[in-house]
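Batch manifest, entry 17 of 40.
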Amino acid sequence: MSHHYCVVLGETGKGKSSFINAALKNHGVDQILEANDLGKACTKSYEPCGPISIDDDKYFFIDTPGLGDKDLDEETKKDLRYQATDRKNRISAILICMHIYDKRFSLSVLEMLKEFMNWFPLYDFWEHVLIIRTFVREDNLRKSGNLEESVIKNLGDYMSQKNIAYPSNLKKREFFFNSVIDDDDGDSYINTDVNIKYEFEKVFAKIRELKPFFKQINLKSKFSREEGNYDVTYEEYEYVDFDGNKQTKLVEKCRILK
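Output type: structure tokens
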């Protein structure tokens, strides 16, 4: 049995909670995230929700309430890093919810992607990034045009400024859902104009192909040393970077005042 953890990113109102709720509901999980379309982030924590059981695999989602709407402060980074790098979660995929007409990521989503790349600087990082297109109907899907080219340009402009590798395409990593907000009571759900069952099958099939980030980062050693008035514990990891080269990374795990 394999466990797959997925972080869901996106601005408030782009359908993150609606997507997660639909995934849970369509797979018989009695669990609901709060959401609305009034520009207010209502989901309460970064705790995983689920699981969704498909064959012998279990899938969990980690919502990121409000993170697509603001700059990342140090406390937020710390909370998100804890969820992202906690070995029990073993994150396999990063799902980015975007409106069908969106041609660029928000700056805060780009900043979050940069943080994930700092935590997991792996050669196949972008294979783990999936785009969830929301508010999709058959008519606006036809009118949307070549969104991938605009998104890649936006991503490239930002990442090249940071001297970070970025993908040349997102083909076969875009999935389409119709996120709808009920104006009467604020409940969120996903409509069925687009074949939702088929899209979910494709999403979960793609996630199932991905190894958790931490399975590609090997713990090489663990040691402690004195640094001034502190005893500091480090872990050294080995991984293959964006260019296919073997690298090591030193991560501070604990700092105790003597």
